[in-house]
Design a protein that fits this description.
With 310 residues, the protein is of the alpha/beta class. The chain has a domain at 2-176 and 210-237 and 277-286: Rossmann fold (3-Layer(aba) Sandwich). Helix content is 34%, strand content 17%. Helix 2 links the parallel strand 2 and strand 3. The termini are far apart.
Amino acid sequence: MIKVALLGSTGHVGKNLTYYFGKEKNFELLLFSRNEKKLEKTISQFELKNNFTIRKYDEFNNLTYDVVINCVGLSDPVKIETSKGEILETAKIFDTLTLEYLKKFPKTKLINFSSGIVYGGQFSSAVKNTNLIDENFNDGKIKSEYVLAKVRSEIKHRMLKHLNIIDLRLFSFFSRFMDLSSKFLISEVISSIKQNKKLITNEFDFYRDYIHPKDLFLLLKKCINNNPINDVFDLYSKKPIGKFELLNSLKDNFGLQYEISLNSGFPSPTGFKKNYYSESRKAKLFGYEPQYSSIETIVNEMQCFNPEIN
C-alpha cells in the first residue's frame, strides 16, 4: 500500500486526484485542506474506496508518507490578479512545509504542480524543450507574483538535487470538477451553454493544450512508480486546439452560440498567450503517452459535467 499525502485536495486538480486515487486499491490517501468542511462536501460526492482519511495541516509532520503531492495554489485569473501577496506567501508556506519534511524523510517523493507560465513571455510559439530553472536564474524582472511564485519554487527544488522532487508544469486543464465561476474561456463557454446565452469573444485566435484528468493521473502514477529523481516535466495532450476550432466544435456538439466582437474577450493577469502549450516530450522518459487530445478531453468531460449539457 502506497501512502500518499495530497495537499490542496479541494482545488480543481486536487478534486480530480482525490476522485481517481479513490478508485485505486493500492493507495492509502491522506487528504489535506485548509477548509475541512469543503473537503468533506467534496468527497461526499465521490464513491471512494475505504482508503482515505481527512487530516489537518498541523498533523502533517507527525505522519509518514511514500509520496507527497502539492497542488495548493490559485488558478482563477481574477483571484490571481487580486491576491496582493497571497500567492507568494502561500507558495512559501507550503514549499517550506514539504521541503523540511523531505529533509527529514529523504526517501519520500514530492510531486509538485508547477505551471507552463514559468517560461514567461507571450508564447508567440509553443515551448520546444523543457528548460530547467535553477539557482542561476534571475527572477528580478518578473512582475507577476503568480509567475514569481512558480519560478522561485522550482529554483528551490533544483537546488536540492539530492531530494526526490518532480515538478509537473501544467499549461491548461479541464474536467467536470471545474469551478464555473472562474474566469477562463472554457468556464465562460460552459456557462453560456447552460444558460443558453451567446458568448462574446474577440477576434484573436490562440492555442491551448487541455490535459484530460485520466492522462494527468496516468502520468502521476508513473512518477510515483519511477526511480528517485529530481527533475521537471511539461504536461501535454495528444493535440492542442485553437480557440475558434474549439468554439466551432462546441457549437456543433453542444449548441454553443458565439459572436465575435472587436477588442472584447478575456484578459489575463499574466498577459496574452498565443501558443500556450509545450511540444516537449520529455515525459516519454516515464513511458507517458496521452490517450486524449484537447478537444476529446473537453467533449468527454463536458458530457459528465452536468445533465443539462448533452
